[in-house]
Amino acid sequence: MRWEELVSEPEVLSNWIGGERRAPFGGQYLDDFEPATGELLARIPDSGSEDVELAVAAAADAFPEWSGRSLQERARCLERLADLVAERAETLAGIESADTGKPLALARQIDMARVEANLRFFAGAAQHWPTEAHDMGQQGLNYTRREPLGVVALITPWNLPLYLLSWKLAPALMTGNCVVAKPSELTPLSADALWDLANQAGIPPGVINLVHGSGTRCGQALVDHPAIKAISFTGGTQTGRTIATAAAPRLVKTSLELGGKNPALVFADADLDRTVAGLVRAGYTNQGQVCLCCSRILVDEDLKDALTQRLADAVSNLKVGDPNLVDTDQGALISADHQQKVLDYMDLAGEEGGRILCGGKALNPEGRCQQGYFVEPTLISDLPADSRLHFEEIFGPVVTVQSFASEDEGIALANSVDYGLAATVWTRDLATAHRVAGRVQAGLVWINGWLVRDLRTPFGGMKDSGLGREGGRWSLEFFTETKNIHLPSGF
Ligand code: TXE
What we know:
Layout: E1 15-17, E2 20-22, E3 29-34, E4 39-45, H1 49-68, H2 71-87, H3 89-100, H4 104-127, E5 132-135, E6 141-148, E7 151-155, H5 161-174, E8 178-182, H6 189-200, E9 208-210, H7 215-224, E10 228-234, H8 237-247, E11 253-257, E12 262-266, H9 272-284, E13 294-300, H10 304-316, H11 336-351, E14 355-358, E15 362-363, E16 374-375, E17 378-381, E18 398-404, H12 407-414, E19 419-420, E20 422-426, H13 430-439, E21 444-447, E22 462-463, E23 466-467, H14 472-478, E24 480-487
Parallel strand pairs: 7-8, 7-10, 8-9, 10-11, 12-13, 12-20, 13-18, 17-18, 20-21
Antiparallel strand pairs: 1-2, 3-4, 5-6, 6-24, 11-23, 14-17, 15-16, 19-22
Helix pairs in contact: 1-7, 2-4, 2-6, 3-4, 3-6, 4-5, 9-10
The structure holds ligand TXE.
């Protein structure tokens, strides 16, 4: 089945407000392009404050009934939605691949598998989340309740559209909140499809609302709305700052999952086969457009030549092209603007005397994808120490290599950037692994691996990579207000 069968009017999307499709008040629309072909895929509402107002009001109306339901009733809704996602996984993967440019196989194996897992995980996790009690003996007992916040805003990016939206949606709903979501204007389609399925799953009208539009107009109106009690945001660091600034005067809770410039620290005793395979995944998955991607390889100087040679060979073998082909490893970047941004960094590397070990150019595959936004997977070494490529988030298939003479120097390089999201450590020595993992400034560290995810664990970054953590009880805590109640030992 093609994705057009899932949405009634694929060319012109609507908002979803109060369980119904609603055209935007202003009647204005934005274009949504298919990155692999450069062709127009859909038109989406250019929503403004009136649309946001309606969506927030619908969510507020639905809140008393939804928050009054039992955990089991809410979980049943999420499980039904997960079943529908599983049934329609192929259609949803097709939508996501077309809208993002990522390989269809990746959308299937990573994105849609995770959407289903997110829904089922939080349906269960919230039911297994214990409440606390503190016994004061003669002075009585304290017990702690977790209460829903009310109407919350979910603002998500384009790199993992439904994966990240469902990661926020599921805990927000399980804790009894009602939602207004704004997906990226670059990748609106899968959210529209999910809302259709949510209706079929019996999530009551108004519990989840979807507004499409630009960040500066629609996103900002949502962030500024006085009835919004929390904002869960994943996106760029600069946008995170803007949102935090808007939320601060009203003391609105924010969870900010922002960018990264993640190091891979490779020591001389690393298992080379395992490391090369891991670095290819960590550097280039989803065309390098994952906040966790390790775009800086920091390698012991004794291993540098052997590693870079092997890595350049492996990266050159990645197949770039039509996302629909089964053997495609790398699809298109998200937009023409983003492609240009990545190419500008490559030009800068050339001007600075960097050695391009492989890649370095745009690419125009034969056939239907000739006008798509493709870039060759690129590996660069020998850049000056202060090159911007070592410090700025490129968010594309571009990885740099630097060497270190000692563990201290490696750690200093790893910690020299403003970001602190993730790091990987490659060594056969357990003591080195623990020591380095403890010293590196990152919210997540993988040893001899990358992106091994357990949904119960805390996810998030330090420094410019964000504020707060998501996952397991961290998500459930974010979407709730804590209330302590004291009971005396006798009345
Ligand atoms: O993200 P934005 P962009 C990084 C990456 C990328 C850069 C910019 O480096 O090149 O950010 O990407 C909404 N009020 N990441 O510009 O703008 C916007 O509509 C409220 C890392 O695409 O941050 C979208 O829904 N909302 C990241 C969402 O914010 C606003 C993934 C994210 O868009 C808004 C993506 C505003 N004022 C990019 N302005 C990661 N952490 O994985 C924008 N938005």
